[in-house]
Amino acid sequence: MHSSKNLFVQGMKQILPVASAGIIDGLVFGILARQAGLGITEAMLLSLLVNAGSSQFAAVGLISQGIVGWPILVSTALLNARHLLYGLSLGPYFRETPPWKLSLMAGSLNDETYALKITYLTAGNKPSLPYFAGASIADYVIWNASTLAGAWFGTVFTETEAFGLDFAFIATFLGFLAVNLVSSFHVKVAVSASLVACLAYWLGGGVAAVIGGTLTAVAIGAVKRDG
């Protein structure tokens, strides 16, 4: 039986591959935040309080166009609507967990930590708050440290796409997807969700693609469970 300390350290170690990919994204975010006119303090507060890369990038994109206020709140809320589904999928594993502990775990939930946690659970491991805490803390520290570095050097690097830095997270999550394609049903769900996401992107952009693809996967899973 693993002790809480061992599980905490294990979580920190196992998040490192995806968190390391996040270093690139954090650097890019810090650079773009400075280019959008944010100061280092403002960029860091956005990163520390939001802790969700996609929403942070969306907010900076709108700020760079002179858009502030409600449009930012609405667009980022829609973009992160998938976090509700993340919580729903993890909830059944933590029915006996006190609400205050669930609140702390929910506050650290993002794409990277969710991918690691659901992979850990579907592999047959027992739910472990120390494991999840270790993963979340390591991811949080790495993300914000890289954001700070990017903000400091925001006036130096301007052509981030030229270095292929925008592909780092895509490659990481393709790896997570491949690991979880354990049956023909999972492959069918992935293909169906991808097709819907592509169509939604063509019709309504990135937010529509994320929501459309996620809802498709959830709907197929619900139909199979009830069928």
From TrEMBL:
<keyword id="KW-0812">Transmembrane</keyword>
<dbReference type="GO" id="GO:1903785">
    <property type="term" value="P:L-valine transmembrane transport"/>
</dbReference>
<dbReference type="InterPro" id="IPR011606">
    <property type="entry name" value="Brnchd-chn_aa_trnsp_permease"/>
</dbReference>
<comment type="similarity">
    <text>Belongs to the AzlC family.</text>
</comment>
<feature type="transmembrane region" description="Helical">
    <location>
        <begin position="15"/>
        <end position="37"/>
    </location>
</feature>
<keyword id="KW-1003">Cell membrane</keyword>
<feature type="transmembrane region" description="Helical">
    <location>
        <begin position="57"/>
        <end position="79"/>
    </location>
</feature>
<keyword id="KW-1133">Transmembrane helix</keyword>
<dbReference type="GO" id="GO:0005886">
    <property type="term" value="C:plasma membrane"/>
</dbReference>
<keyword id="KW-0813">Transport</keyword>
<protein>
    <submittedName>
        <fullName>Branched-chain amino acid transport protein AzlC</fullName>
    </submittedName>
</protein>
<keyword id="KW-0472">Membrane</keyword>
<feature type="transmembrane region" description="Helical">
    <location>
        <begin position="167"/>
        <end position="187"/>
    </location>
</feature>
<feature type="transmembrane region" description="Helical">
    <location>
        <begin position="199"/>
        <end position="223"/>
    </location>
</feature>
<dbReference type="Pfam" id="PF03591">
    <property type="entry name" value="AzlC"/>
</dbReference>
